[in-house]
Write a structure and sequence with these properties.
This protein is an alpha/beta fold. It contains nine helices and eleven strands. The protein is 39% helix and 24% strand. A hairpin with an 8-residue loop joins strand 10 and strand 11. The two termini are 29 Å apart.
């Protein structure tokens, strides 16, 4: 069975539209690449009790949870306190993080800066690059910064920590079909190939195709069988040349 993951996006700035969330898509791609299923995403405000409640619900029902946002020295950076609250643990100071902060800020260092070195008891630090801020892990929770430039830097570390050799196999078919035309066919394929996830994604224009069909599973033979069944059921003129398709 696939390992499951959830993401908790934290920040009033996301909920008010002041900042566009950019971390989730990158995280989802990494998780898919290591064979982990992202099952749920929650966005919550910078409120300690609410974060703790959401985190407890997610970590109880998923193998791994990733938080994004609310890490810093200001009054609204309450994620670390919320994680400690969720686990019922005190915060303790990390000597490694304290050294990083002192070296980075030098004479500009304040007590507010140092609070970023206080982490829930039982934390682990992921990362061994000198001078780089590591990712923080508390049991099955990865506590990550919300700033996209920093969040994205952590993803290679996270990917390596999650890799087990069990991955998804994926295949795509590009067509000129309308979803309504092949909805019945897709339903039959889903029944005939229950271990393959079949996705249907229409686009507006300018891509060289109008509908992309994806087939995801654990076994190459099962994925291929589902995709080939689709190809066999469609007339040749309804298929788009994948080399001419502009895709993202």
């Amino acid at each position: 069975m696939s390992r499951t993951a959830a993401a908790l996006i934290i920040g009033n700035e996301v909920l008010t539209g002041k900042v566009q969330e950019r971390n989730l898509a990158a995280l989802a791609k990494v998780l898919f690449g290591v064979g982990m299923t992202l099952r749920r995403v929650v966005i919550c405000p910078d409120e300690e009790e609410g974060i703790a409640d959401d985190l407890n619900a997610l970590r109880a029902s998923h193998d791994v949870v990733f938080t994004s946002g609310g890490i810093g020295p200001t009054h609204d950076d309450v994620t670390i306190a919320a994680v400690a609250r969720a686990f019922g643990r005190p915060q303790v100071r990390s000597p490694q993080l304290e050294d990083l902060l002192r070296n980075h800020f030098g004479g500009r260092l304040t007590e507010r800066h140092l609070r970023m070195a206080d982490l829930p008891e039982g934390f682990r630090l992921l990362g061994d690059e000198p001078g780089r801020w590591p990712a923080v892990i508390v049991d099955n929770v990865y506590v990550l910064p919300g700033l996209p430039e920093v969040f994205l830097m952590k993803l290679p570390l996270i990917r390596r920590s999650l890799e087990t050799g069990s991955t998804f196999v994926s295949r795509a078919v590009y067509t000129h079909c309308d979803e309504g035309e092949i909805a019945d066919l897709l339903e039959h394929l889903a029944v005939d190939h229950p271990r393959v996830g079949i996705g249907s994604y229409p686009v507006w224009e300018g891509r060289g195709y109008s509908l992309k069909l994806t087939f995801d599973g654990r076994e190459q033979s099962e994925v291929d069988a589902a995709a080939e069944a689709l190809l066999a059921a469609l007339p040749a003129e309804s298929l788009a040349n994948p080399t001419l398709c502009e895709d993202s």
